[in-house]
Design a protein that fits this description.
1 helix; 3-stranded antiparallel sheet
Length: 173
């Protein structure tokens, strides 16, 4: 018995984001430093661990693969400030910069308080029926990550006559 030809495998088939119910894109892991807190007036650094993902399943009733590629990151820092970045950022160490350096994904809180940070990753999707190559999906897939809390506090320094090597029991040592 001959196999039934795939009617939706034609290059003229248009696949939309709404057709991808069987192919969830997974939320990105998030991180920040300092871990869970920030100093008012200094940059806190945020990053996301999003990467390309490929899933297999039925698309329009036919076996297919769908690939999700991160293309944008929308940060909401919880204090009314937002940022959109083309990359997910990285830790200060991975960026080879000093702690509290400004990064493309960092944020300075101006008031002390507890803030809920949310991230939404935007993915481009491509699909493939068998070995026909990748074709674009019409639309953008948006996936929110789990929100997390940042506590912003004011800090101050103490000026002393000696450094901590000379007087290890001095203020701030």
């Amino acid at each position: 018995m001959a196999a039934t030809p795939c009617t939706v495998c034609s290059p003229s088939t248009i696949v939309r984001v709404s057709d991808l119910q069987n192919f969830p894109a997974y939320a990105a892991a998030t991180g920040m430093e300092p871990n869970g807190w920030a100093i008012v007036g200094l940059p806190a650094n945020f990053w996301a661990g999003a990467s390309s993902q490929i899933g297999e399943g039925l698309l329009l009733g036919e076996p297919a693969q769908v690939m999700f590629t991160p293309i944008g990151y929308r940060w909401n820092y919880g204090d009314g400030s937002t940022a959109s970045t083309p990359t997910g950022g990285a830790s200060w160490a991975d960026l080879a910069v000093a702690e509290f350096s400004t990064t493309p994904t960092s944020h300075k809180y101006t008031k002390k308080g507890t803030y809920t940070v949310t991230l939404t990753v935007e993915y481009r999707a491509d699909y493939s029926f068998g070995d026909q190559g990748w074709r674009p999906v019409e639309g953008i897939v948006t996936v929110p990550s789990a929100p997390f809390t940042v506590v912003a506090a004011k800090e101050s320094t103490v000026l002393v006559a000696e450094d901590c090597n000379t007087n290890p029991h001095g203020p701030g040592c």
